[in-house]
Amino acid sequence: MDRLVNMSLPMNNKNKDDSYKYCSEYDDYYSYEKASLTECRFSVLDDEISYNITGNCGEEYLFDDLKAMIILTAAREFQWKAGGGKSETFNAPAGTVLFFPPQCEVQVKWPARNEHLLVTLERKLITDIFEIEDAHEVATLFPAPSRYVNPRIMQVVDLLRPELISITPVMKAYLCALRTVLVTVLIKDHTTLREHPPNSPAKGLSDQAAHKIEDYLRANFGQKISIPEMAAVLGISTGHFLPSFRRTFGQTPHQYLLMLRLDEAERCLRETDLSLQEIARRSGFSSQNHMTTVLRKNRFTTPGMIRRMRAGPPMATRIIA
Questions:
Q1: 268 or 25, higher pLDDT
Q2: For the structural domain made of 37-195, what CATH number should be given?
Q3: Phi/psi at 273 (nearest 5 deg)?
Q4: Would you say 47 and 120 are in contact if contact means Cβ atoms under 8 Å apart?
Q5: Residue 193 and residue 43: Cα distance in Å, rounded?
Q6: Which residue has the higher pLDDT, 123 or 285?
Q7: What pLDDT was estimated at residue 23?
Q8: pLDDT over 50 at 137, yes or no
Q9: Which of 296, 237, 235 is nearest to 262 (CA)?
């Protein structure tokens, strides 16, 4: 049976009666919250997976179930504090995974716009996947908050993310299958790394070099920048620069540069009345059509949709088969 959802609600509205309007009995299958183009939340499968976009802000969590947070875009100087421990600040590349045990108080601070997933590691799903009968054994897998970088998880996320925020029909069975794969990879890789930690983890750029190349890209993203030019900024070879950049940011230089260009395009569309052609030029895109194509592919929106949303809350519909 299909389900029609009216998606028009403020992010800070926690009253379900005010936030959700349904046209079928499948409550809690899909929900959407949006305060602006820089802060929104999409959730599916009874809130077991949520895709979140946040601005420069701090957040607090207290989960009833075991949760994993997967950082999708590199976060420089990301801060977190969990379980009454000390606050930790570190550079989190895309693919960083944070685990939060049940009833663990968590505080995080995002230094800039960021995308991340929150995934519920349901106890029954874990016991089914790993054929564990003792509930206590599940708890021992995650005795305390922990974190590690898992580039492999991004392969699954690349399949899941479009389905979470697409407004076209999507099969519930497909989402469930992707969720199972995601949880399986999270658990297995976490268990492997905990039991057999790497002896000499690969090193990325130094903090000084990371800040230097990041400042350079933020100042010049509107221009054409080649990999050799980026490497020259740091005085290292292209062969050394590429893997070091990816280990540091969890993204290729091209992906990172594209993220900066998309952020600037969205900002100009929201905050200015510049022509689309001028915004494309300022943001580093070759043409208005190129900017529109890349926005639709990576942010699942268009310049027209962004401009229209300035006049009021977003309205959209989605049918789920």
A1: 268
A2: 2.60.120.10
A3: -110, 25
A4: yes
A5: 29
A6: 285
A7: 26
A8: yes
A9: 296
Cβ neighbourhood burial of 239 (10 Å; 0-12, 13-18, 19+): exposed
**Cα-based distances in Å from 293 to 190, 276, 315, 317:** 37, 13, 21, 22
Residue 112, pLDDT > 90, answer: no
Domain boundaries, the chain: 37-195, 207-311
Instruction: Match domain 207-311 to its CATH number in 1.10.10.10, 1.10.10.60, 3.30.460.90, 3.40.50.980.
Output: 1.10.10.60
Q: Which of 49, 112, 100 is CA-nearest to residue 249?
A: 112
CA distance 296 to 294: 5
Q: Judge whether 125 and 68 are in contact, CB under 8 Å.
A: no
Q: Looking at the DSSP assignment, which residues form a beta bridge with residue 181?
A: none
Contact 83, 144 (CB under 8 A): yes
Please choose, from the candidates 241, 264, 237, the residue with its C-alpha nearest in 3D space to the C-alpha of residue 252: 241
- Long-range Cβ pairs for the range 33-38 (8 Å, 24+): 33/9, 34/7, 34/9, 34/10, 34/313, 34/314, 35/10, 35/11, 36/270, 37/266, 37/270, 37/301, 37/306, 37/309, 38/113, 38/266
Task: Give the span between the Cα atoms of 299 and 167, in whole angstroms.
Answer: 12
SS3 string, 250-275, reads: CCCHHHHHHHHHHHHHHHHHHHCCCC
8 A C-beta contact, residue 146 and residue 99: yes
